[in-house]
Amino acid sequence: MNQSNPSGNILRKILQSPVSHLLRGRITGKQSLLERIDISPISDNVATAIDEIITRMPRLLKSKITRQLVKDCKEQLQKGQAEKQLLEKLSDPENIAALIRKFRTADWVLDSTIPSRLWPTINNIVGQKKRFGRRRKKIAKGREKFDTVCRSFQGQLEAGRSPEELAEKHGDAISIGELINETRSPGVLLDHELPEKIVSVVLDVVKRTHLWPNEKSDTARELFAHFTDGLEKGKSTDQLIKEFGSPRTSAKLIRRACLRKRPLAWRVWRRTWQSSVAMFGFLMVLWVVLFARFVVAEPTITFDLVQEYDDLSRAIPVEERAWPLYREGMSKISKEDYKELRGSNDLFFGMYEGPENQNWPEAKKFLAKNKASIELFLAASTRSQLGFINRDAVNREWFECLGWAKGYEFNSPYPIGSDISLPATHYLSIVVSRMFNGEIHLAASKGDGERSIKLLLARLSMSNHYRQACQSPLTQMWLNNMVSYTSKNIVELLKNQPEIFTDNHLETLFQKLFAMNVINPDPKEHESAIEDFLQKTYTDDGHGNGRFTSQGCQIIEKIIDDYELDLDLEWLFPAGIEYEVLTAPAVALIADRKEMK
Fold it and tell me: Count of H helices and E strands in the chain?
């Protein structure tokens, strides 16, 4: 046993402290780890061996490993172990440091009886670890594998094998190390007597099987036994590998046999999972096809309905068009009066109910203020054709002056939606109709039958002009409503003032109402409007058929928003980039163009 000298220990501590730097004529600097630890029982050679190991450690481990190695060395020396044996165990700092970094501890370095000659081989075997997994779990598994390998080597050493023989047998240990990682059973696989080339073939087969670790271990054992029998029969390594055949084919057959041996519950689960994946893949492919089909679908615009209406209006002689007079009359109304006429309920009820309404005085003032406009409206009603042109620069300038250019923009050659804006009908119903109605009540209150009959006939003519703005069921329904209201107005006037109309007046009104007989809209008479909707929402295959497009979805969404329909269709029209992806399958269920028509 080494005896420590107390006086020598004191001198050693002084020499390993900052005082040693001063004695050498240098200003002291930062102490090394060994200088800060009591290493008095340890010789300089052992301290140097420890230092060579810790210099290869990451900074976070240096302090811990240094204290651990110094403590173990002290304990070994106190137990009577010779310094030469300690140096032998620490003689391979590079591989020892590599193993310490893997296990984060050095408690095995001096306790192991494995010769230093085998540390490179053990490091090659243990050092090959999985890339993924939790750090603590990987360290524990690596340490378990290390202990198993050490026990296997120790058993072979005790059986009479030399370290050189073990190192030569395992070579660089790359194949056996990877095989141990795959099978997680190092104890059995390390006892083989097979060359590296055969182990490499076994590794290739085991990897390709993609089985569970215990199944891989059984496969490796069986293959080892097969090749060992071949070697014992005198066959060469190359001959055995050639007779074995393709590793891929062997792995496929082995995997198939192992899967058949697995429990029934697992096989049911596997088939269920495979069916689910196949169904999901089929649905994804179908979804992608529907999405691509939906994205590339574009409507084909073959005609412009608004342009057709404008062409018909342009064919009407200027002197027969009523719209220029309507527009001139409305241009004489100030913006403030427009705002009051469109937004004031008091003025609205005052004009429609007449003297019976409390707001009638304000209505009379409004009518007197805009007398010139009413006369122009009366002149316009005498003309047979409305003659409104949507894409007319004069109309556009007038709309822009009123701050209502939206109608002109909507009726562009390629509109965003399927709707056709009818600014003419808006002004005829909001401005002209209301002022006519108020003027009829005013003339009746004065007992002026001639003017009353003139205004009633003008209102009926204006209703006919309203229908001419667009040949559609909607305008026909509004015409019916206007004619019905005019009829009620005539009846009320006859009840309140029976003497206001002569027989000639009544005959004239009857003939006018008969000429404007209320009819039910017939969709067949408005095929152009239907075709216009279809051409903007469907593709055209040239044979009268086609599929729904994304523009069609936008048009339907706009219709829902414009008419404030209480329909929960947000699932069909989601917002954001996922709109087309989510809508594609739903659109596939919508009827095609021919069925919709």
Answer: 34, 0
Residue 62's contacts (CB-CB under 8 Å, 6 or more residues apart) are 33, 54
pLDDT per position as a tens digit, 263-313: 999 999 999 999 999 999 999 999 888 888 888 888 888 888 788 888 888
Angle at 337 between CA 336 and CA 343, to 5 degrees: 90
SS3 content of the chain, % helix, strand, coil (to 5): 70, 0, 30
Burial of 149 (0-12, 13-18, 19+ CB in 10 A): buried
Are the C-beta atoms of residues 94 and 56 closer than 8 Å to each other? yes
Q: What's the CA gap between 145 and 127, in Å, rounded?
A: 10
Mean pLDDT, residues 82-111 taken together = 88
Q: Would you give the end-to-end CA distance of the chain in angstroms?
A: 108
Enclosing H/E stretch for 506? helix 503-515
Joined together, the tokens standing for residue 74 give: 């002290």
Count of other CB atoms within 10 angstroms of residue 232? 9
Would you state the structure tokens that stand for residue 554, as one six-digit string?
A: 């936008």
CA dihedral for 439, 445, 446, 447, sign (positive or negative):
positive
Which residues have C-beta within 8 Å of that of residue 486, sequence separation ≥ 6?
Answer: 456, 459, 460, 463, 513
Q: Could you give the CA distance from residue 72 to residue 78 in angstroms, rounded to a whole number? A: 10
The partner residues of 548 in beta bridges, in order of sequence, read 538
The pTM of the full predicted model, rounded to 2 decimals, is 0.51
Per this entry, what is the length of the chain?
A: 597
Q: How many Å apart are CA 556 and CA 549, to the nearest integer?
A: 11
C-alpha to C-alpha distance for 466 and 423, rounded to whole angstroms? 11
Cα–Cα distance, 198 to 216 (Å, whole number): 16
What is d(CA 82, CA 73) in angstroms, rounded to the nearest whole number? Answer: 10
592 close to 545: Cβ distance less than 8 angstroms: yes
The two tokens of residue 249 are 């084919």
Please give the C-alpha separations between residue 88 and each of 49, 73, 92, in angstroms, as whole numbers. 10, 12, 8
DSSP string, 212-243: -HHHHHHHHHHHHHHHHHHHHTT--HHHHHHH
Q: In whole angstroms, give the CA distance from residue 287 to residue 293.
A: 10
Q: Please give the distance of CA 419 from its chain centroid, rounded to a whole number.
A: 32
For 199-205, the CB contacts below 8 A with 24+ separation are 199/175, 200/175, 201/241, 201/244, 201/247, 202/175, 202/227, 203/175, 203/178, 203/179, 204/247, 204/251, 205/247, 205/250, 205/251, 205/254
**Residues 156, 159, 164, 168, Cα dihedral to 10°:** -50
d(CA 109, CA 103): 11
Return the pLDDT at 551: 80
Q: How confident is the model at residue 325 (pLDDT cuts 50, 70, 90)?
A: very high
Residue 406: partners with Cβ closer than 8 Å, 6 or more residues away = 399, 421
